[in-house]
Design goal:
about 325 residues; disordered N terminus; Rossmann fold; four-stranded antiparallel beta sheet; alpha/beta; 3 domains; seven-stranded mixed beta sheet
Length: about 325
């Protein structure tokens, strides 16, 4: 792995300009990110919290832009610099983003054998490890911050503090048969480190599950701005081609990608409330009444149903889940 990056006058290493997934140097600039606007969305009633978030973000980068690879379609931040732990602490305490359960937890545990040894990268407060414990699976994990690690240990979970660039955790024998990383990849300044780290803690025949925000989620398909799907929170936006490319460059072959189901009622709500007729009707004071809004929305459902079956038939839920296997070693 080449770590000879350029260094700015602030002493911050900057990765090469190529696509973090496939390495292509052909890209299109998409948008500039307004950190002040983003933080006003995070804490609309708390100017002091907004200012603290912006100050914390500025320690890593004072501005970001998003660009898209013309090869694999990955979208990534310029610069690729993750915020420090203070920014994450502020953001997550403001928004309460740690989930108690996820769709992808159920998918993975349903396909694990009782003999598997699971290792969860970026385990957070241990929700997935707890689910594994309840299903009788042997599971350990690691996280990047001491707070979540301590929370897990208080629950009796076996968790280590890690640095993805520092190799496997202290004392960790590479014996995991299943490695997981749920909603981690999009936060990393160098996504390749996750795949290399997964290889260092797993057996030759191990499987790797990587969950990220889906490129088929309603906000993406409808072209809406998602303030949580921007840097500094998310540095990358993935699709199946980009997952395949980054895995292949780091010794993992993508076997399959599956998408979180989106309930029909949720899909119809998204499509109906984004129609021009709906927006015009609820724009006035009368439209703000709950009963009026409901009638206007229901009136859009026949058209929304048709659009769901045609133009938006691929719209899915929040997450997508890639399943990888290690590339077989070449004969000696």
């Amino acid at each position: 792995m080449d770590n000879h990056y350029a260094v700015t006058d602030r002493g911050i290493p900057v990765r090469p300009a190529g696509c973090p997934a496939c390495g292509s140097i052909t890209q299109t600039v998409l948008e500039a990110i307004d950190l002040g606007e983003q933080h006003r969305f995070y804490a609309p009633q708390d100017p002091a919290r907004q200012a603290a978030l912006t100050r914390a973000a500025n320690r890593s980068a004072s501005h970001y832009a998003m660009q898209r690879c013309q090869g694999c379609g990955l979208e990534w931040a310029d610069p690729m610099r993750a915020p420090d732990f203070e920014w994450y602490d502020l953001a997550y305490s403001t928004l309460s983003l740690y989930p108690g359960s996820r769709w992808e937890f159920d998918v993975v545990t349903a396909q694990c054998r009782t003999s598997d040894r699971v290792f969860d990268i970026g385990c957070g407060d241990g929700a997935f490890l707890q689910q594994c414990r309840q299903k009788g699976l042997h599971a350990t994990g690691a996280d990047f911050a001491s707070g979540p690690v301590n929370t897990c240990r208080r629950q009796g979970l076996e968790v280590e503090l890690i640095d993805l660039q520092g190799g496997s955790p202290r004392g960790q024998v590479p014996d995991a048969t299943v490695v997981t990383a749920f909603q981690v990849l999009e936060h990393l300044a160098d996504p390749g480190h996750l795949f290399e780290f997964a290889a260092s803690v797993s057996t030759a025949d191990a499987g790797l599950w990587v969950a990220i925000p889906s490129d088929r989620r309603p906000s993406r398909v409808l072209g809406e701005r998602d303030y949580l799907d921007q840097p500094p929170h998310h540095l990358t936006r993935w699709n199946a081609d980009a997952l395949r490319s980054v895995g292949d460059r780091h010794g993992w072959l993508l076997d399959s990608v599956c998408y979180e189901p989106l309930p029909r009622s949720t899909a119809l709500w998204w499509i109906a409330t984004r129609s021009d007729a709906y927006k015009r009707a609820v724009g006035g004071a009368a439209g703000q009444r709950r009963s009026t809004e409901r009638l206007v929305r229901w009136a859009q459902y026949p058209a929304a149903w048709f659009r769901r079956a045609t133009r938006f038939r691929d719209v899915a839920g929040f997450s997508m889940l890639g399943r990888f296997r290690k590339r077989p070693a070449l004969p000696a």
